[in-house]
Amino acid sequence: MGAIFLFIVNSFAQTTFRVRGGLNLADVSMKISGIGIDVTTMKPGFHIGAIMDHSLTDIFAFETGSMLETKGAKIKDSAIGGVSGEAVTNIFYLDVPVNLKASYDFGGIGVYGLFGPYVGVH
């Protein structure tokens, strides 16, 4: 789930550069020696970066870029071995997506889907 904001600048007829940003809502589940911890709570984060779309046809495009993302979780009041406490994780990633993008305009409503891997550096 996320909110996305796009700013578009056309440089060539087939290539579009965008600045993309939004909200990350990530959660974590953990097991320590068979003990499940279910008291994690979502920690909101953000993503922002630059994306390049290069049109291949009217429907398909190649998309790549560089995104800075934050992810993490909070663990509250967990009792492990009689000890309770709180822990917060804040993880920063630099993600580089390499996607094939398919898009179609349904009478003024644009729909698109992405398929492909990304490389993430922590």
Q: How would you sum up this structure, described in words?
A:
With 122 residues, this protein is mostly beta strands. The chain has no helices and nine strands. The strands form two sheets. Strands 1, 2, 5, 6, 7, 8 and 9 form a seven-stranded antiparallel beta sheet that branches. A two-stranded antiparallel ribbon has the order 3-4. A hairpin with a 2-residue loop joins strand 6 and strand 7. The two termini are 22 Å apart. The mean pLDDT is 79.
What attributes does this structure have?
single chain; 122 residues; mainly beta; seven-stranded antiparallel β-sheet; two-stranded antiparallel sheet; 9 strands; 0% helix; 80% strand
Number of strands: 9
- The succession of helices and strands, N to C, reads EEEEEEEEE
For the terminal residues, how far apart are their CA atoms?
Answer: 22 Å
Low-confidence stretches: none
Level of helix content? under 10%
Mean pLDDT: 79
Main sheet overview: 7 strands, antiparallel
Shape: elongated
The total count of helices amounts to 0
Tell me the structural class.
mainly beta
How much β-strand is present in the residues? over 45%
Radius of gyration: 19 Å
Oligomer: single chain
Write the layout of secondary structure elements.
Elements lengths: L3 E7 L4 E12 L3 E3 L2 E3 L2 E16 L4 E21 L2 E24 L2 E7 L2 E4 L1
Antiparallel strand pairs: 1-2, 2-5, 3-4, 5-6, 6-7, 7-8, 7-9
Entry summary:
By secondary structure, this protein is mainly β. It is built from no helices and 9 strands.
